[in-house]
Write a structure and sequence with these properties.
- By secondary structure, the chain is an alpha+beta fold.
- The protein has two domains: 7-85, no CATH class; 91-188, Orthogonal Bundle (DNA polymerase, domain 1).
- The chain contains eight helices and three strands; from the N terminus they run E-E-E-H-H-H-H-H-H-H-H.
- Strands 1-2-3 form a three-stranded antiparallel beta sheet, with helices on one face.
- Helix 4 packs across helix 6.
- The longest helix is centred in the N-terminal third of the chain and has 29 residues, at 55-83.
- It is elongated.
- Keywords: DNA-binding.
- This is Phage integrase SAM-like domain-containing protein.
- Residues 96-185 form the Phage integrase SAM-like domain.
- It comes from Candidatus Gallipaludibacter merdavium.
Length: 225
């Protein structure tokens, strides 16, 4: 199998106020994990003096160039890890809770409930490296025994736990698609089976009896049928 690794180069761009902006140039282009768009440039937010006037400014420029080179090396390592299937240590250390919370912004309210339960479960700290099959199974057990967020004396219903865990597994699927986690954890997880909700309804004879029952308020009778 042939592998073509992306080349990463530190480049400079002149900007106003006699400054130079440093950015990374990727060739070929890579996908931005935030926007999911293909891009060749990553601006670093690092600036140089375009015309350093003294030794201090020249030393500052050298230090910023060294920092840009260090970032370039990290990016190259990440690309190689991804290309050859190694687990990227940088992604392992990334904040899973921050990723989860960001996803909630574009989802319905249930996602926020699931986020809060997971936040409580992990005590407010969780990296991508900690997200594995064992953690996810323990979160399943947590949901089956957890209390409601707004009613601390009432447990979560089985059907709510089922829906919450399904949402969480949906998040894992997105994270796997976005290459934040290397393994498709869902392959090793079982869903929480919901219970059938018994619906009360009238028999045909009961409906006929109700229709034949006198009522002084026509609107009320019509609403009951």
């Amino acid at each position: 199998m042939n592998h073509t690794c992306t080349k990463v180069t530190v480049r400079q761009r002149a900007i106003r106020n006699d400054r130079i902006s440093l950015y990374l140039d990727y060739y070929p282009a890579v996908r931005n994990p935030e926007t999911m768009q293909m891009s060749r440039r990553e601006y670093l937010g690092i600036y140089l003096y375009a015309h350093p006037k003294n030794e201090m400014e020249r030393a500052f420029n050298n230090e910023m160039l060294n920092k840009a080179e260090a970032i370039r090396c990290i990016r190259v390592q990440s690309l190689i890890n991804e290309e050859f299937g190694f687990l990227d240590k940088t992604k392992q250390k990334a904040d899973f809770l921050a990723y989860f919370k960001k996803m909630c912004r574009t989802k319905d309210e249930k996602w926020t409930f699931v986020y809060q339960h997971f936040y409580n479960f992990v005590k407010g700290k969780c990296t991508f490296g900690e997200v594995n099959v064992d953690l996810c199974k323990r979160f399943c057990e947590y949901l089956l025994n957890a209390k409601q967020l707004k009613r601390f004396d009432s447990p979560i219903s089985l059907n709510s736990a089922s829906g919450y865990y399904s949402t969480f597994r949906g998040l894992l699927k997105i994270a796997y698609r976005d290459k934040w986690i290397r393994e498709n954890i869902n392959d090793f997880l079982d869903k929480i089976e919901p219970e059938d909700v018994k619906k009360e309804y009238l028999t045909l004879d009961e409906v006929k009896q109700l229709a034949a029952t006198p009522c002084d308020i026509p609107v009320l009778k019509a609403a009951s049928l």
